[in-house]
Please model this.
Amino acid sequence: MDPSFYARYLDSAEVLETRAFDPAKAAEVHLLPRRPLEFLDERFVRRVVRERRGVAVFVPTRAEVEQIAGELGDRWQALATAFYHGGEPIRVIRPFLDGSVHRPFLLAMTAAGQSALNIRGLDTVVIYDARYANVVERGRNVLTRLYLGANEILQMAGRVHGRVAGGQVYILSDRDLAFDQLRPTPPEFQLAGDAERVAITCAALGVDAQDLDLPVPLDRRAYRGAVDLLTERGLIERGRLTRYGRDVEAMPVERPWGELLYHADPPLVPLVAVAANIESLHRMTREERHLQGLVVSGSDHLTAYNVYAEAVNKHGYVGEVYGLPRHLFRETVDRWAEGRGVLVKVIEDVALGMASVYRQLELPLPERLPHADDRALAAFADLVARVMPFDLVIDEETADAREARVSRGSVCGSWGAVAGTLRYFADRFGVPRASIEGTQLPERAVRRYAHRGTPEVVFETRRRHAGLLLVRTVTYFGFVLEREVEPLPTPFPPELASAARAALVNALLAGATPHPEAGRLRKTLDRFGLYWRRSGGQLAEAAPAAVAARLAERLQQVRSWEEFLDTRLSLDVEAAIAAPERARLDALPASVHLHGDRVPLEYEVESGKGVVRVRLKEGQARRLRQGDLPELDRPIRFIVQRGKREAVRADTLAELHRQLSGLPRTDRQRLVRGGRRRRPR
Model:
């Protein structure tokens, strides 16, 4: 790992760097465009057995790890096989670590074993050049298949390279890699987890993350959205945690579960405390699972709770670890977990998390846990519907009409409301998709806690008719359940006249009205907007609020639709903005030359400060270096257009190159299929 990052950020005079590499023990490195099971064929395994080699195979997913170990173990009795991933306790491969398993052997692992495990007798490493990582796209963490970075390859190969005589490294990849030219890179950090955790931590400290010198770029869009959400939910007020926010933040669980624990009645506390420490039912179990008698139809949360409850009731007891009462398990839990298809490490992690919750709540840890049934589901669903701290999907759509499918392994139905955690992933074509696991909410609970809003006046165009409408809605956490619409009477009712004029102002700003002067007004508004953006949000005369106020003055006496159409709306840019100021802003460059191409500059206001956005093609962005950029009076942001694919957005050139260095979507598509494309004849 490149230590310069730490030296620079920590302002350290010296960084201790250690090495353990013997050039005489450098491994043979082979690069092959094959997939793991295709490579681990009969010829390779026979050579492993004949030469009595110890093999580690690194693949990206839990399913691939188990598949490789299972298939090879069944076919080759002379080859000791096992697997290890983040869902398994370290004791499952303890025999490999202490040397009691003799060669030949094969151990399949995910990245969980790439650096921390020293396996005795290991002399061969097989690396599949693929990983899954969260890539931030438009404020969303999208699980995306990428190539391995230099650090990962060097760590995996470093299990034998320079450490073991006669070592061999096989890299399975469809890209051209020069192993001897790989160098450590700065670590990839994710700032304190997700944007919501960053927002809560900053509010607890009374600081704004946008004002801090952070070691990694901040996803400003996601951070602002998280602050707005937490403010709306009453956890943050004027940038600081409220009393409610402090109580929720003190819970040793994620914010949604902390809110549920705060509101839960005593009978529901065990259910919430357990479910809060389970990432998902899917990650708690293997591909083949047997949960008969434990499934609570309509709730992944309570099904996962029942799995843990059975483990405690049949194989657990209350003990104490370092003074903390917690559930401990007898050795028989391993056999139970294997029969159920449950990951033992997840059970142990839940036990630790539940103990922390009960310590925070100052409650005694229960020795036995009640079985969750339909009655428990009704109470739990009512609590969730009342508080609604989770993501919400109704009929497999989010509140902003994006598709979000119920996860394949979920016990929830596809229709109706499902509250849980949205997870984003890139499909084989690189398109972000969303899925959800959670608890299904009955319609009566949704209706019980829905909000009937006050009537509002809006401007809409319907069937070639534009006009003001009176709208009454019933909403539930962003979803519009009912919407009653009727034309606004003219003259406007006195109690709605002010709202009607405000709606007309908004419609004029959007260019949506059939007013006779709408075309001329649109050009004037565009000029105000241009000067506002070029001023970096500093020119008060061109501020959107000031322009809206001028239009509102023009409509102050309007009492009906006919009066609106007869009202003159002309605004004078020259009278509002002084000539020297207009000349200064007009003189700012509209484009720059980069590598022989003219690239447009787009001026914007971001968080109250001026920025300029450079819109590039992908080839231009990959060639761009810091010295190519002109000196401008404000920070530069980047947008890279990628045809039909989603644009890449970055705040710095380094971040832009980091995003572009990830595996392109077309390559991800090839990587899924495996192998190189055939050249056309």
Notes: Residues 231 and 237 are 6 Å apart (CA to CA).
